[in-house]
Design brief:
Chain lengths: 261, 261
């Protein structure tokens, strides 16, 4: 009985006694996580700056459709990149938390991303209808549609499987454990699709707003739009690096054991 | 001595005696590899069809700059998607080959991708210069530039480290083994950047060639351009799935042992 208690404790957190991390590894970890945090917050801040400085801010009114459109890039970047990015990285950032808290934070960050994506989508749909522009004709909209669909399915499946099914903790442990890699793989795919949707959207916006000729002269606004794209690419690179680094992951024994919570 | 021989043999191939694959696993493997092959060949075929059917084919002449431009999407899709895609998947497709042959095939596929990317880049550079259009102003060109740079670095590093350093096989084994995950991670990143460059490029091309109004009516050519983009997204999903599936990988002991070759 005395022996079982510490094992139980360890299985519920990301901390592993067996694998002490060296100073060098901690430095790399801290550096990469800080970089990811700065980029994830920075890309949304840059999008808001672009909107206020070059596109006259936000609105939701029939007589100001252009300002209403501005909600679309801002909320989609916030939803698909900033909140979703943090939500993915939580499993690497909060290594010393109990797993149930990380799960709840993961769900909360996605719950923050959800209204951003829905309102961001409604903003452009309403803008198109007000201006008499067709919906869902461009490659950007097709990618975005698939990304939104995957996001919704992932959220519903994740919420029911990893939170609600905890009511029947032991009976569903195997099912939940087998679902983890599928949920993780589709989560990364949704994130990458979100990145692709943002990049094609920024390309469209630059050409629609600046026009091909002005854009080719690379005015200040063009640089800002490109910089948002570059920041998204940098986030993609950092997220892929962090996710692929086994050393950043919780100990594999902990991961398997902790699926019970 | 008798015992060492079969171990040596196994360490040089992807075949593992310890892990026999079930019928279900083989079915999934065959299905996914077939799907990847069809998509990788299909996307290049579709791009060539688009060029001949809607864009009047290819040329490299001062009086036909538009036809010269057509080399750009075709060769970039061939280089960054088809050849690079096969090159990445070789490590999952050729599981029963000796590792050195897989390495050589990997190098050959990248050697095929290399001139495609170089000529594809020169085609658009020359087109821009002939038409008096600025170079490297768009987000697409920035992403493409980074993707090309990474591709070049990866090729040089890979060629020297994993092929030339075999001259000093034992002395460099540890160095090469430590380089494998870095080379693999940057390889996937290069592939994803290639995908992003293709998608933003297709968006630009649709808007430049069809114009915003015609594109929004979704003419046949718009559907074909979008279909190329969707095929690229499907390839990305399948490649990420195959790469993430541990079951498709060679046995981990084989992987470590086979780094000697």
């Amino acid at each position: 009985m005395v022996l079982r208690f510490p094992f139980k404790q360890r299985s519920r957190s990301y901390e592993s006694d067996e694998h002490e991390r060296g100073a060098c590894e901690w430095c790399e970890y801290a550096l990469v996580i800080t970089l990811a945090t700065v980029l994830l917050i920075g890309v949304s801040a840059l999008t808001i700056f672009w909107t206020f400085f070059y596109r006259e801010g936000y609105a939701w009114a029939d007589e100001l459709p252009e300002k209403q459109f501005n909600l679309h890039p801002t909320l989609m970047v916030a939803g698909f990149i900033t909140f979703s990015g943090f939500s993915v990285l939580l499993y690497r950032i909060c290594r010393c938390f109990r797993r149930i808290y990380v799960k709840l934070l993961h769900a909360i960050f996605h719950a923050l991303a959800f209204p951003c994506i829905v309102i961001g989508f409604l903003a452009v749909l309403d803008f198109h209808n007000k201006k008499g522009i067709n919906n869902f004709y461009s490659l950007h909209s097709w990618i975005g549609f698939v990304a939104m669909g995957l996001f919704g399915i992932q959220y519903v499946v994740g919420f029911f499987s990893f939170l609600l099914l905890l009511i029947c903790n032991k009976g569903t442990a195997n099912f939940r454990a087998s679902l983890v890699p599928i949920h993780a793989a589709f989560g990364i795919l949704t994130f990458v699709l979100g990145v692709c949707a943002c990049l094609t959207g920024l390309t469209e916006k630059a050409l629609f707003t600046l026009g091909a000729e002005r854009y080719s002269g690379l005015p200040d606004e063009g640089v800002i739009i490109n910089a948002i794209g570059v920041a998204i690419i940098a986030i993609l690179a950092v997220v892929m690096y962090i996710v692929s680094r086994n050393k950043f992951k919780a100990d594999s024994r902990d991961m398997t054991a902790s699926v019970d919570l």
